[in-house]
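A reminder from the course coordinator: this example appears on the midterm review sheet, so study it carefully.

Given structure:
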């Protein structure tokens, strides 16, 4: 099972605000996110789930929270109380690939387990307090870059795994 981070990052490293909003709305980037993740499980932190409001359609939404009271009645969403537990569930269910979709807290914990990263680098800076975590760039090999008007999508594979 491939574990893949997918994220969109402004030039100044911002991925979001503490109020939970996405600081930009770029249709083409959302379309790329949807097309890439559609049909596969997506793992996210409780705060990111709350910014979405509803599960993403066509994907099993796995929400990570420490809260024993958090529940969500929807066939498209399940709750786990640890990232490791969620990853074990996906491995046992034999998914070909799964996507880690944020936010920062989840990206930070996931980076050591991740095989690939699909990062959209936005061509602008944004206002916000939540940054993509630092990672060791020398661990990653860029395998593809697609250029769009407002962003570039770069695929990275962990060195030694391709
Ligand atoms: N640009 C992008 O690509 C992108 C993607 C996604 C999100 N975002 C942005 O990122 C921001 C949210 O990121 P964030 O870092 O604040 O929050 P987050 O990672 O979405 O969620 C954090 C929450 O996840 C739960 N959690 C984290 N690690 C856990 C663990 N090991 N075990 C159990 N529960 C765990 C906790 O929930 P409880 O508090 O319920 O225990 C924690 O408060 C928003 O602004 C959002 O818009 C941006």
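Designed residues:
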């Amino acid at each position: 099972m491939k574990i893949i981070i997918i994220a969109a990052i402004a030039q100044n490293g911002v991925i979001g605000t503490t109020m939970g909003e996405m600081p930009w709305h770029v249709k083409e980037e959302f379309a790329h996110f949807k097309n890439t993740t559609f049909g596969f499980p997506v793992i996210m932190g409780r705060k990111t789930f709350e910014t979405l409001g509803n599960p993403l359609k066509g994907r099993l939404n796995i929400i990570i929270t420490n809260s024993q009271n958090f529940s969500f009645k929807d066939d498209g969403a399940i709750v786990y109380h640890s990232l490791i537990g969620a990853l074990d569930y996906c491995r046992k269910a034999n998914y070909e690939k799964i996507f880690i979709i944020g936010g920062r807290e989840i990206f930070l914990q996931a980076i050591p387990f991740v095989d690939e990263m699909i990062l959209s680098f936005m061509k602008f800076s944004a206002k916000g307090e939540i940054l993509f975590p630092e990672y060791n760039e020398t661990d990653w090999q860029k395998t593809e870059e697609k250029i769009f008007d407002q962003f570039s999508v770069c695929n990275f594979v962990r060195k030694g795994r391709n």
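The chain has a mean pLDDT of 96. Residues 2-158 form a domain with the Dihydrofolate Reductase, subunit A fold (CATH 3.40.430.10).
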